[in-house]
Write a structure and sequence with these properties.
The chain is α+β, with helices and mostly antiparallel strands. The protein contains 10 helices and 9 strands. It starts with a helix and ends with a helix.
Length: 364
């Protein structure tokens, strides 16, 4: 089932970009700007159809999201139905509509999960106490260190650890305390792998090993919160809370970059490789973590696109507002130059983060 969940996760990830572009298209049409093409995936083109409203709908071979092409997309364009000929307020609505769609998508996902069981992710996570039921599952192995006693005993990532020497475990701290108290000794862990339950024996490290501890297990217990009538409120509240946490995380990362703390900054970000790696790990646990991760990614897309980074929606709006404030014309050539430069810088960062992701996955 893990592979199926992973495939579903990839499809949902692609749909997040499609939803983002759909926001731009809806806002444009509602404000009199013509949508010349709405595409799912990127060219080369596989199939096309002219819709009744005049928009060309296309399916393309590269499944990397989607795009929307507006009439007269440059700020300097003019004429009826063009983006350039629209008012500044209309342009703002069009540019930020994609951000809003991703943010609302996150709200919907977290609302559904509040009804079915929402993982506890951050301290003081938003909830409505009078309508919240909290439950804690068994201790899980978030990861198992290579060459550790746990790995040698056959314990894998995401295995459920039910007991230690016959003592039931209800929290990750119990396992940490237990392994510390039995350092260097042989212990028996009762684990559950899939539907199979078995006992495994392992001899703990005598001393605490860097990156392993005593057993080589990074444990966690999954606490979930379930709501009923307050689920929509929780969806909005949690999305707002995580938006703030994401912004704080970005500020921390920028501060680390400013102080040349590149290794530390690299631990706070993930590129396409890192996202797919996390998605794969989540899919091995079940659909719920995959669905939750899609909500987080949707929220992250919203936050990133609102930032004043050229080549992104917020950057394009920032450039438009800057040239209006300077009372200078934003020509087609100048706008393309700014956006192209921003795109190259962005791709350079993605490439750099990809190398960091690969190193993190391979342990090098």
């Amino acid at each position: 089932m893990g592979i199926l969940y992973f495939i579903v996760g990839i499809v949902l990830f692609i749909l997040l970009v499609v939803v983002h572009e759909l926001g731009h298209a809806i806002a444009a049409r509602r404000n009199g700007v013509e949508v010349e093409e709405f595409g799912i995936g990127f060219p080369p083109r596989a199939w096309k159809k002219k819709l009744k409203n005049g928009t060309l709908f296309t399916l393309n071979w590269l499944p990397l999201g989607g795009f929307v092409r507006l009439k007269g997309e440059h700020d300097a364009a003019d004429g009826p139905g063009t983006y350039g000929g629209a008012t500044l307020w209309v342009k703002t609505k069009i540019l930020l509509a994609g951000v809003l769609m991703n943010w609302v998508t996150a709200v919907v996902i977290f609302t559904i999960m509040a009804l079915t069981g929402l993982p506890e992710l951050v301290p003081n996570q938003f909830s409505v106490p009078s309508d919240t039921k909290t439950s804690t599952e068994h201790v899980h192995a978030a990861s198992v260190s290579s060459g550790s006693p746990a790995q040698k005993a056959g314990i894998g990532s995401h295995d459920v650890i039910l007991a230690a020497n016959g003592q039931e475990l209800t929290s990750s701290q119990q396992l940490v305390d237990f392994t510390s108290a039995h350092a260097g000794k042989e212990i028996t862990l009762t684990i559950k792998q899939g539907d199979q339950k078995r006992d495994v024996k392992l001899t703990l490290n005598k001393d605490r090993v860097q990156g392993q501890g005593y057993a080589g297990i990074s444990p966690y217990e999954q606490t979930t919160r379930t709501s009923t009538w307050s689920a929509p409120i929780v969806g909005v509240g949690l999305t707002a809370q995580l938006t703030w946490e994401t912004l704080k995380g970005l500020a921390t990362t920028l501060g680390q970059l400013g102080h040349a703390q590149f290794a530390e900054a690299g631990q706070n970000v993930a590129g396409p490789v890192g996202i797919f790696s996390i998605l794969w790990s989540s899919s091995e646990i079940g659909f719920q973590p995959v669905f939750f991760l899609i909500g987080i990614i949707s929220l992250t897309l919203a936050v990133m696109n609102v930032l004043p980074i050229p080549a992104l929606d917020g950057g394009r709006l920032f450039v438009t507002l800057l040239f209006r404030a300077l009372k200078r014309p934003l020509t087609k050539e100048r706008e393309e130059s700014i956006q192209a430069t921003g795109f190259l810088v962005l791709m350079g960062l993605v490439l750099l983060i990809t190398f960091v992701d690969i190193g993190r996955i391979t342990g090098k």
